[in-house]
Amino acid sequence: MSYSSEEETDISDSELDEYVDRCYEQLKDGIRKVKFSDEVYRCPYCPGKKKLVYALKDLLQHASDVGKGSQNRDIKHKGKHLGLVRYIKNDLAQQILMLKSSRLKSDLAERGFDPVRVRLLSTGGYAVVEFKKDWSGFYMALMFEKEFEVDRHGKKDYCEAPHLADELYGWVARDDDYDLKGPLGEYLQKNGDLKTISDLVVDEKRKTGLLIANLSNTIQELRTRVDELESNYCKPPAAVIQKDEMQ
């Protein structure tokens, strides 16, 4: 059954919002299925439509068009697609990012690198690969960068051939990336720590100094404890002394 535009005005925004909420919860609970395969999705509300499967961005566009359309449509049909839009943006997109991040981390590990974490950014097509925050991690990051450069997929190659950006390029983030406007720069400023090699050396010395100081304190405490134990062990018990005096 379809409603005219006049009939649609009889349904309040709150009623539509409640219906969108209900459709969204059904998608979250798996009552309505969206995923068709790892890369292909379908609209659970348009089974008879000529185009049955979509890439995720195309499914989002389809759901947005139906949900915002002004032509005569069943108001519930709009509500279902608005719920689908919310589900794609809030849940499905994040699930896909996490899955792709995990796959990329495994791929890099198989290539001999040892990433601590891989984070795909939701926009911009960037992924941030994190290594250990020590000299071994720094060395691994440089080897990571060198391998991409040798394969002509370093930062210079990326900047010179943006039309090939669908391929995987890699480099070590530096100050120009840190100061970049957009999702990459924002992420690095929020989560990264821009340092020079001199800064790393100073940090390492500071950490080493703290470690030595802590070890020295621990050794001194152990020596004091040993001295106390030896003193107590060599001192005769008071009860025995009293017994000897009585004899």
From TrEMBL:
Biological process GO annotation list?
Answer: gene silencing by siRNA-directed DNA methylation
Domain XS as annotated: residue spans: 93-179
Q: Which domain of life is it from?
A: Eukaryota
Alphabetically sorted, this entry's keywords are: Coiled coil, RNA-mediated gene silencing
Q: Boundaries of each Zinc finger-XS domain copy? A: 43-84
**Protein name per its UniProtKB record:** Protein INVOLVED IN DE NOVO 2
Q: Which organism is it from?
A: Sesamum angolense
